[in-house]
Design a protein that fits this description.
This protein has 6 helices and 10 strands; from the N terminus they run ββαβαααβββαβββαβ. By secondary structure, it is α+β, with helices and mostly antiparallel strands. A hairpin with a 2-residue loop joins β7 and β8. The radius of gyration is 19 Å and the shape is elongated.
Length: about 230
């Protein structure tokens, strides 16, 4: 089986994207991409399929979903085009899925916190219990590392559970911006924490109520700008 050289691609300091990836081969092994770049997109495919079934999405369903995904599909096509053995896109999707599963099993990525796997045939994955959306008694939530335990994963959980929510990214009293929860500035909701990569190094104030967030900024004397991209 082909090996994927995850250690040959340095981890970038930006959010994961597959648009500009260049694939080449060393023998029969592809290089040019890392697990940090690909795993968030694989996780998004699993989440979509498991959500549709409200149960386990099988390996074969996930592999097919990867080939049809708007980000992973073109990447798999690049691998097939460069592959000296000309294996199919489904073959490479299966290899990448096995890589994802192995890393999840040994705790080498955070996706084991979000998915559970059944090892009975057919092997499948489903979502663990999601974070409940905010209630009126929880009008505001705050996520900030602030020298203590990281809250990156909890913030990402909140974003997935509150896709119509809003948050303020607070850099300073004179530099704070209101975003929609799924604003692309914060990347994919499966973007993992890493060196210089935590979304909660800066304070995040979150709510489903826009007025609550605006009032919070007024109370704190913080100048608030609106994101021009997500237009909250």
């Amino acid at each position: 089986m082909a090996r994927i050289h995850s250690n040959l691609t340095p981890r970038p300091k930006t959010k994961p994207t597959l648009q500009n990836i260049r694939i080449s081969f060393v023998g029969n092994d592809p290089i040019g991409f890392s697990q940090w770049e690909t795993f968030p997109f694989i996780a998004a495919v699993i989440e979509k399929l498991a959500g549709q079934t409200n149960g386990f999405a099988s390996d074969s369903e996930i592999v097919l979903g990867m080939t049809q995904d708007s980000a992973l599909g073109p990447m798999l096509a690049k691998i097939v085009a460069a592959d000296p053995k000309k294996r199919k896109n489904t073959d490479w999707a299966a290899i990448m899925m096995a890589w994802f599963s192995q890393k999840m099993s040994v705790g080498a990525n955070s996706h084991g916190k979000r998915f559970e796997r059944t090892d009975t045939q057919p092997v499948g994955y489903r979502l663990r219990e999601a974070v409940a959306p905010l209630t009126q008694t929880e009008a505001l939530l705050e996520f900030h590392n602030d020298g203590g335990e990281s809250t990156h994963d909890k913030f990402q959980d909140w974003r997935r559970a509150n896709d119509n929510g809003l948050f303020i990214n607070v850099k300073s009293e004179n530099n704070a911006m209101l975003h929609q929860s799924l604003c692309p500035h914060s990347g994919n909701t499966y973007f993992e924490e890493g060196a210089e990569g935590s979304l909660t190094n800066k304070l995040k104030i979150c709510s489903n109520n826009r007025e609550e967030l605006l009032n919070w900024a007024i109370r704190k004397g913080i100048t608030l700008k609106l994101c021009r991209d997500c237009k909250p």
